[in-house]
């Protein structure tokens, strides 16, 4: 396969090759000379601004976006200000930096996204030069103003402008400058004649590259590597100095013998490579400079642009798109002339096997004798990943598969993974897609980013096929792609709402983890409210439906959905929103049509807004609840007059509600309040607010028996209740004499056992014994036991011949001290049991 090495060129210990990626599909009448051009890394899109210096409204510049194969993606006339620089972000958004410091952001299909300013100083002094760079924080913009000052923003998604210090002795535009990334900080390296300065946030530090040729009097051009680790300087003596970006270590210096300033410079360094090289482009010459004195020269037929990549440099001109890179080690070892590497021998063995030649066995034996067959298979697999032509890939993978047949324990994952990767890469390298990714770039980018890029290009079928082929988890793959497709679909105007809603549901029916509310939101933002409502019908989670319905001013529907969900918090959310959005009358009217919401709102008002609760009851003519409201409100009033007034309102409402019991009870409460106030004024006893029960108790405890009896009669308190109250009050007061008089005043409606128990409770057995004789026979045993008279309790229990009472007395007797009583009780118990 000698043709594989036909485009290889040696440079030092390495080889370089130029691989044709695409024949460009575009037609550029004026070529690239009169264009501002920017190409995104990782095989991204290309932006052209034709006639960018035109200022006449009749002949506006034209902004065009193409894929890497030259397929048009977007085109529109530029109607804004003079553009100084184009560039791409890490997420494939196009940045257009204008002369006034305004940066406009477009997506890769030409849709305007947003704009931002680089500050007043830039706006006033105008933009002289701009560089768009990628930092650890995202995409950044660096600007040199007309005042010869640098302004920097390291992340356009979180704009924080930094004005860098002034460069000493800078009277005009610097000969060249570049943005460096050191210690996670972006700095600017400026060349002013023979002097170099590094600008950071606070200082301007002069630097001297170690080993720079003394013949150089100024730096004409500089470039930073893709990884920001290395720096190259081209001096006016024609020397190219290469070293680390911190300017502490020199890698090499080569004399190009060309002293004119180049159009572009770019690093061409493969990851983990030991070879450093820089590509320099003049009008019709491309020069590859490495660590040795030799160089590689390529003649250019037309104006070209260099696009730095992590593993090479892409070269774009009017007709072709090529990749210049160092030949990967695996490819070099296999295809290099007279190579005896294991991979080269395995490839030859497979070729001989296909010819049915016995030499295949000789080659295999030679590899096996060195125990390098596994290494040979790995080399072939790795080399296949670095090759761009599918036929070469297949040849190498067949050789690897052939070698695997003779290995018993070779893990299949490497081979299978490479086959999958190459199938995906070949699909996206097709000119209709136009993403010339290398395998190294693909692994650095990750499959998730690749899917995102396909989605942004609206290549939904391909994105879905890639997800399914690579078995990406559904929520990261197919479902995510379908969601993006649905969001795009609902913005199309060609079909009716009904058709789009049905199509979206049909396609998304089997997909998991997709929120219809997000798709409906996109439809609403596109001005298709009815379509958004139809899509929300497919959303199973009410919590996702309701916020968007409220946003769309579909309040009744939002309230209905919230109620259907059974989620009270969600209902409260809608109700509170409606309360703030609607006038009071419309709000109450809407709640009346939704009993559940009305009930919940009443609950809320009971704890938070009592006045609103009153308005609700008034509107509904709910006199019973209004009466209850006035009663509750009365207890919060400290003044008696206000309390009585509210109670009177409650009485009126209860009568309107035909609830005479509540009305009468409320009237009695008012009468009690007046009585308490009168008594409070006469006797200086704080009684207002007490219940009838507590009022009587308080009066009895202070000896106001007549007033207590007056309340007893006026409020028709039952005899039993009054006797209980007076009994407890006198006992607590310790007025035993009054208690005895009270007991003798008339027959007790509660009996006399309570007198015994209350006296015992207050530790007065003597007083308790006075009432034992008056206790009814049924309660005699309890009374005697209460005062501790076991003898009398025994007599009473035997006399009544009640087995349970006998057992109760027995339980209180001691087997040692009450032997006689126990014997009597046991005989009585036996007699009672016989009966």
Descriptive keywords:
single chain; 835 residues; alpha+beta; WD40_repeat_dom_sf; VPS16
Shape: elongated
The helical percent reads 40-55%
Q: Please tell me the overall pLDDT.
A: 84
Strand count, sense and closure of the main sheet?
5 strands, antiparallel
Task: Tally the beta strands.
Answer: 29
- Order of strands, main sheet, comes to 1-2-29-28-27
Continuous helix count: 33
Overall radius of gyration: 49 Å
Task: Indicate the proportion of strand residues.
Answer: 15-25%
Helix/strand-derived category reads: alpha+beta
What does it look like?
With 835 residues, the protein is of the alpha+beta class. β28 (312-316) and β29 (320-326) form a beta hairpin. α5 (373-386) runs antiparallel to α6, α11 runs parallel beside α13 and α22 (640-656) runs antiparallel to α23.
Write a compact overview of the structure shown.
It contains 33 helices and 29 strands. The chain is an alpha+beta fold.
How are the secondary structure elements laid out?
Layout: E1 8-11, E2 14-23, E3 35-39, E4 46-50, E5 62-66, E6 72-77, E7 83-88, E8 94-98, E9 102-106, E10 112-117, H1 120-125, E11 127-135, E12 138-145, E13 150-153, E14 162-163, E15 176-182, E16 185-192, E17 195-199, E18 204-207, E19 219-224, E20 230-235, E21 239-244, E22 250-255, E23 264-267, E24 278-281, E25 285-289, E26 295-299, E27 305-309, E28 312-316, E29 320-326, H2 329-335, H3 342-354, H4 359-369, H5 373-386, H6 390-404, H7 413-429, H8 439-445, H9 447-456, H10 460-469, H11 478-489, H12 497-508, H13 516-525, H14 529-536, H15 542-551, H16 555-565, H17 568-581, H18 584-592, H19 595-608, H20 610-620, H21 623-634, H22 640-656, H23 660-683, H24 692-701, H25 705-714, H26 719-733, H27 736-745, H28 753-761, H29 765-770, H30 777-787, H31 790-800, H32 803-812, H33 819-834
Antiparallel strand pairs: 1-2, 2-29, 3-4, 4-5, 5-6, 7-8, 8-9, 9-10, 11-12, 12-13, 13-14, 15-16, 16-17, 17-18, 19-20, 20-21, 21-22, 23-24, 24-25, 25-26, 27-28, 28-29
């Amino acid at each position: 396969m000698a043709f594989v090495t036909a485009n290889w060129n040696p440079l030092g210990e390495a080889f370089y090759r130029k691989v044709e990626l695409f024949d460009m599909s575009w037609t550029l009448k004026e070529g690239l000379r009169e264009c501002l051009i920017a190409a995104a890394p990782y095989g991204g899109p290309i932006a052209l601004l034709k006639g960018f210096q035109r200022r006449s409204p009749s002949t506006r510049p034209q902004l065009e976006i193409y894929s890497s194969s030259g397929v048009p993606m977007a085109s529109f006339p530029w109607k804004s200000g003079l553009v100084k620089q184009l560039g791409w972000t890490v997420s494939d958004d196009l940045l257009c930096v204008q002369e006034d410091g305004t940066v406009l952001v477009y997506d890769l299909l030409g849709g305007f996204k947003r704009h931002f300013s680089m500050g007043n100083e830039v706006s006033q002094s105008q933009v002289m030069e701009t560089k768009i760079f990628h930092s650890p924080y995202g995409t950044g913009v660096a600007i040199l103003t007309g005042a010869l000052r640098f302004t920097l923003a390291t992340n356009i998604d979180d704009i924080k402008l930094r004005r860098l210090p002034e460069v000493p002795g800078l009277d005009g535009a610097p000969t060249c400058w570049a943005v460096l990334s050191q210690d996670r900080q972006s700095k600017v390296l400026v060349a002013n004649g023979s002097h170099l300065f590094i600008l950071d946030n606070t200082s301007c530090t002069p630097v001297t590259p170690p080993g720079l040729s003394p013949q150089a009097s100024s730096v004409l051009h500089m470039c930073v590597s893709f990884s920001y680790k290395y720096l190259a300087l081209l001096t006016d003596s024609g020397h190219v100095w290469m070293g680390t970006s911190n300017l502490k270590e020199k890698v090499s210096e080569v004399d190009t013998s060309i002293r004119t300033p180049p159009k572009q410079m770019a690093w061409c360094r493969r990851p983990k490579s030991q070879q450093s090289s820089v590509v320099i482009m003049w009008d019709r010459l491309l020069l590859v400079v490495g660590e040795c004195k030799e160089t590689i020269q390529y003649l250019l037929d037309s104006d070209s642009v260099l696009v730095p990549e992590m593993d090479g440099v892409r070269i774009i001109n009017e007709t072709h798109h090529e990749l210049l890179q160092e030949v990967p080690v695996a490819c070099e070892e296999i295809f290099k002339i007279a190579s005896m590497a294991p991979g080269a021998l395995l490839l030859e063995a497979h070729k001989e096997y296909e010819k049915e030649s016995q030499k295949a066995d000789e080659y295999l034996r030679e590899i096996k004798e060195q125990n390098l067959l596994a290494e040979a298979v790995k080399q072939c697999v790795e080399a296949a990943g670095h090759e761009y032509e599918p036929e070469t890939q297949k040849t190498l993978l067949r050789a690897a598969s052939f070698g695997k047949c003779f290995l018993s324990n070779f893990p299949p994952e490497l081979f299978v993974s490479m086959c999958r990767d190459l199938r995906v890469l070949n699909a996206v390298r097709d000119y209709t897609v136009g993403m010339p990714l290398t395998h190294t770039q693909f692994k650095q980018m990750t499959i998730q980013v690749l899917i995102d890029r396909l989605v942004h290009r609206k290549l939904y079928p391909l994105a879905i096929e890639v997800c399914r082929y690579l078995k990406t988890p559904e929520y990261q793959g197919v479902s995510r792609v379908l969601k993006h497709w649905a969001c795009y679909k609902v913005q199309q105007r060609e079909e009716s709402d009904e058709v789009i809603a049905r199509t979206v549901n049909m396609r998304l029916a089997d997909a998991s983890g997709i929120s219809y509310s997000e798709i409906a939101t996109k439809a609403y933002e596109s001005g298709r409210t009815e379509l958004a409502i139809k899509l929300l019908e497919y959303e199973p989670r009410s919590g996702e439906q309701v916020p968007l319905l409220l946003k769309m001013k579909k309040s009744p529907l939002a309230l209905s959905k919230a109620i259907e969900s059974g989620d009270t918090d969600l209902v409260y959310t809608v109700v509170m929103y409606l309360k703030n959005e609607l006038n009071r009358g419309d709000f109450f009217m809407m709640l009346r049509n939704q009993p559940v919401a009305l009930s919940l709102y009443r609950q809320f008002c009971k704890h938070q807004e009592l006045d609103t609760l009153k308005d609700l009851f008034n509107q509904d003519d709910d006199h019973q609840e209004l009466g209850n409201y006035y009663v509750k409100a009365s207890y919060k009033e400290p003044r008696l007059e206000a309390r009585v007034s509210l109670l009177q309102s409650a009485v009126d409402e209860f009568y309107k509600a035909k609830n005479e019991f509540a009305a009468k009870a409320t009237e009695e409460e008012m009468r009690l309040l007046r009585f308490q106030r009168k008594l409070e004024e006469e006797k200086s006893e704080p009684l207002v607010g007490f219940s009838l029960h507590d009022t009587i108790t308080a009066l009895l405890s202070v000896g106001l028996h007549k007033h207590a009896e007056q309340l007893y009669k006026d409020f028709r308190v039952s005899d039993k209740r009054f006797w209980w109250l007076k009994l407890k009050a006198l006992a607590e007061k310790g007025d035993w004499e009054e208690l005895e008089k009270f007991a003798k005043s008339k027959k007790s409606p509660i009996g006399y056992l309570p007198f015994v128990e209350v006296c015992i409770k207050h530790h007065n057995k003597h007083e308790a014994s006075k009432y034992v004789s008056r206790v009814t026979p049924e309660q005699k045993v309890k009374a005697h036991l209460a005062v501790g008279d076991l003898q009398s309790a025994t007599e009473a229990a035997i006399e009544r011949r009640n087995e349970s009472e006998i057992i109760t007395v027995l339980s209180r007797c001691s087997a040692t001290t009450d032997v006689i009583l126990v014997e009597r009780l046991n005989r009585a118990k036996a007699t009672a049991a016989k009966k």
